[in-house]
Design goal:
Blueprint: H1 14-30, E1 36-38, E2 49-51, H2 52-62, H3 80-90, H4 98-109, H5 111-118, H6 131-145, H7 157-170, H8 175-188, H9 199-206, E3 214-218, E4 225-226, E5 244-246, E6 252-256, E7 258-262, H10 265-274, H11 276-282, H12 284-287, H13 302-310, H14 312-315, E8 321-326, E9 343-350
Antiparallel strand pairs: 1-2, 3-4, 3-7, 5-6, 8-9
Helix pairs in contact: 1-2, 4-5, 4-6
Length: 355
């Protein structure tokens, strides 16, 4: 059986999709009755077990490990000369292309993209798509496919921005510092490059990935927030001070004295279940917990176990999320005699499907 399709860079080509079908048929034939098999995609690397249907989806999305050309884990017989070589192949870490990683991020952020890929050869009813969401998806896809500059094979516009923004966050770079180096990089590259000129424009490109934040005006002394029913107020209800700054001529300008950035919780919890590599971790406490005397997860604490007994119906579904309140470094009573760092479970609980 030819394995040339494994090295085909076009995952949507007939050769690649037909190769996946051949592999799935091979796995079914050599593992009769099996519902789960090892997944040979570059992310699972033959270490995770998935349903046969999900394996086919993973191979379209993540590609198969290029070095895995002898399917010994699925029943293919090896000769003596190739057995040692195959052993070495299985232990090789997969090399993930940054551009493929960015495409994975886009597909994770837009659920309809992965759904359409998974069922493109079936007769299922297509998932309804919001026009604004699809427009964001097309913009991101365009930036993911457009070269950073002509004949640049290593980076697309989106890949470059993601890499630079990751470094900014990892090394706590200020916006001014980031703008400076972004300008330097832009001058270093060919003149017709598409690198954004500053942090603001780079952020706009990434806005389509979601997980943004809301700006809520606040009084500088933290008396109140200008939010919800108080959103239209111009003065504080407690101290009667203006929420906007004053110029040297004592004229009010529409610049708030203080802004609070609120990060909505529900979209972030939902994103954890949209990403394939974090969705499994979110259910670890139910599916992979080790019951011994080692404290390795909040599920090993007495508070968690007591919660399970009190709310047994909620605890039965591993997808349900428990929100905890951490008080590390915060002392509301101004005294050192109170133990800090207590982790208490809150009854603010939600199910991601209904959130």
């Amino acid at each position: 059986m030819s394995r040339r399709w494994i090295h085909n860079p076009n995952r949507c080509s007939d050769e690649y999709l037909d190769g996946i079908e051949d592999f799935i048929e091979f796995a079914r034939r050599h593992n009769p009755g099996a519902t789960r098999i090892r997944c040979p995609c570059r992310r699972c690397n033959n270490t995770l077990w998935e349903t046969i249907e999900n394996v086919g989806f993973h191979l379209v999305r993540n590609r198969m490990i290029e070095t895995y050309s002898i399917w010994n884990l699925y029943g293919e017989q090896l000769d003596h000369d190739s057995s040692s070589n195959a052993t070495r192949m299985d232990s090789v870490e997969p090399i993930v292309d940054p551009n493929d990683q960015v495409m994975d991020i886009i597909q994770d952020a837009f659920s309809f993209a992965s759904t359409n890929i998974n069922h493109e050869r079936e007769d299922d009813v297509p998932t309804p798509i919001d026009s604004a969401e699809f427009e964001q998806y097309e913009k991101l896809l365009k930036n993911a496919n457009q070269e950073l500059y002509p004949r640049c094979e290593s980076f697309s516009i989106l890949t470059a921005i993601v890499e630079l923004m990751h470094g900014k966050i990892k090394y706590r770079m200020s916006n001014l510092c980031f703008d400076y180096f972004l300008g330097v990089f832009k001058r270093m590259l060919p003149k017709d490059n598409c690198l954004p000129k500053d942090h603001k424009h780079a952020q706009k490109v990434l806005n389509g990935l979601g997980l943004g934040y809301e700006k809520i005006y606040a009084y500088k002394n933290n008396c109140m927030l200008f939010h919800k029913e108080h959103e239209t107020l111009d003065t504080c209800l407690i101290c009667n001070e203006s929420r906007f700054k004053m110029t040297s001529q004592n004229r009010t300008i529409k610049i708030p004295k203080k802004v609070m950035r609120y990060l909505p919780l529900k979209p972030r919890l939902q994103r954890l279940y949209m990403l394939t590599h974090t969705a499994t971790d979110m259910r670890w406490h139910k599916e992979k917990q080790v019951y011994d005397d080692v404290m390795r997860h909040p599920a090993d604490e007495e508070a968690w176990k007591e919660f399970n007994q009190t709310f047994s119906e909620f605890a039965a579904d591993p997808r349900n999320v428990r929100l905890g309140l951490a008080t590390d470094g915060f002392n509301p009573y101004g005294t050192n005699t109170i133990a800090l760092g207590q982790f208490s479970y809150s009854h603010i609980i939600c199910r991601l499907g209904n959130a």
